[in-house]
Amino acid sequence: MHGIHPPRQSRRTSHAQRLLAWYDIHRRELPWRAKPGEAADPYRVWLSEIMLQQTTVQAVAGYYRKFIARWPTVGALAKAPPDDVLAAWAGLGYYARARNLHQAAKVVSKEMGGRFPSAAEELRKLPGVGAYTAGAIAAIAFGAREAAMDANAERAIARLFAVVEPLPGAKAKLLALGKSLVPHKRAGDFVQALMDLGAGVCTARRPACEKCPWADECEARRRGIAEALPAKAPKRARPLRRGAAFVARDRSGAVLLVKRPEKGLLGGMLQPPLGPWSGKFPSDKEALAQAPFRAAWKKLPGVVHHTFTHFELEIEVWAAEVAKRPLNLLHPPPEGGSITPKRLRVGGSGRGNRAARTPHRKTRSASFSASPSRGEARWISMAKLKDAALPTVMRKIIAHAFDGQAKSARMR
Ligand code: SF4
Predict the structure, then answer these.
(1) What is the pTM of this model?
(2) Does residue 226's CB lie within 6 angstroms of at least one atom of ligand 1?
(3) 214 touches ligand 1 (CB under 6 Å)
């Protein structure tokens, strides 16, 4: 390690003991956390760690309780219909996690007799379990001497040792330093203590060093550079992608939704029909050619904005109310697909419309299928909409359409 060596045994023990003593008093009560003296349940630890990937404790708590109430064991989760799992996950984001969660539950239930493996390298073989999650589960559920370096832990360790090399390049070094501190006994408590310290004391801004168990040993504090660490390499700007969405309602208020392909962005989730995404909005003529069927489509004022990890999305929303559900739909593929117009039959046969013959532009990713099978479009009643497997961005689009239509109705 450039200029920083793992601390000597005596210092490691001192760091660990101080942190554990602090944790015994200040530990957070979390719904998935075993009480002092209780054995941790690997299923609950795994479920919470998957949910906590890139998501805050506050956002996860309600979802965790809902999942545990509905699927109290890994076997119960394995038996759940995939759509139910996706619907229960809706709103938590990063939907590949939900699909992997279900897959992993099946593997543990069917191939491992319902018991999670205890070694980090075995845990990593489960779908959706990376190095961090494997380390966290191994340490918390099985007491293995593993580190789990989330952003909170990385920040505290970077400061304790004054690691000035920027992230993400410094990750390996921070992991090695973090792991060197994990004690042989109470490894799980140590890992959770480090998370709690980063979340509540060694915060990104204004760390509360006066409350910190490492205040006397912290090199960044001694040098007065704590708030500047961890250093981060400059972020690249996210590209902006734009497109059109089509929110159709029938007389009863039911909304037309289509299912995304299982693989890829928001895989297996529902959405209103969308046109392809590119650097600019389609012209009105282009947008109408992307509509799922001919109707009195009306473009609503404003745009829906959503930030994904790797890009920003802006969507113009077109709305229509139909007296009769169309029998044939042109189903525009989910964004970015290799776009070949396909007809999708819903409820019977009939002739396609003009839009079905309009070629669509091919955009960035070819990983999305443009061929949803029959039956993957559906009209969802207002009452069922709240429980549908709709990701947040699609809920925003539908809400925008409802708001826009209500405003138009008031102005008429
Ligand atoms: Fe973080 Fe301050 Fe503790 Fe150092 S002393 S680890 S900067 S809270």
Answers:
(1) 0.72
(2) yes
(3) yes
Residue-wise pLDDT for 268-300, tens only, equals 899 999 999 999 999 999 999 999 999 999 999
Confidence of residue 409 (pLDDT cuts 50, 70, 90): low
- Count of alpha carbons within 13 Å of 83, Cβ hemisphere only? 7
H or E segment to which residue 377 belongs? strand 377-380
Distance CA 187, CA 322 (A): 61
How many whole angstroms from 309 Cα to the centroid of ligand 1? 29
Q: Is the CB of 194 under 6 A from ligand 1?
A: no
Residue 15 Cβ < 6 Å to ligand 1: no
> Which residues are the active-site residues?
49
Q: Please give the radius of gyration of the chain, using alpha carbons only, rounded to the nearest integer.
A: 25
- Residue 372 — pLDDT band, cuts 50, 70, 90? very low
- Closest to 273 (Cα-Cα) out of 203, 326, 198, 195: 326
CB-count burial class (<10 Å; 0-12, 13-18, 19+) for 16:
buried
Can you tell me which atom of ligand 1 is nearest the CA of 215? 5
Which of 141, 198, 202, 148 has the alpha carbon at shortest distance from 175? 148
Q: With a 6 A CB cut-off, is 209 part of the ligand 1 pocket?
A: yes
Contact 131, 85 (CB under 8 A): no
Nearest Cα residue to 296 out of 380, 379, 393, 405: 405
The preferred substitution site among 161, 218, 227 for testing ligand 1, maximizing ligand atoms within 8 Å of CB, is 218
Judge if the upstream peptide bond of residue 168 is cis by omega within 30 degrees of 0: yes
Measuring CA to CA, how many Å separate 398 from each of 79, 273, 401? 31, 11, 5
How far is ligand 1, taken at its centre, from the CA of residue 300, in Å? Answer: 50
**Is residue 181 in contact with ligand 1, taking CB distance under 6 Å?**
no
Q: What are phi and psi of 38, to 5 degrees?
A: -85, 145
- Answer yes or no: are the C-beta atoms of 54 and 94 closer than 8 Å: yes
In 230-364, the DSSP E strands lie at 240-250, 255-259, 270-271, 298-299, 304-307, 312-322, 328-330, 343-345
- Helix-strand-coil percent breakdown of the chain, rounded to 5? 40, 10, 45
Place of tokens 């009195």: 296
- Mean pLDDT, the chain, as a whole number? 86
Residue 305 CA to ligand 1 center (angstroms) comes to: 37
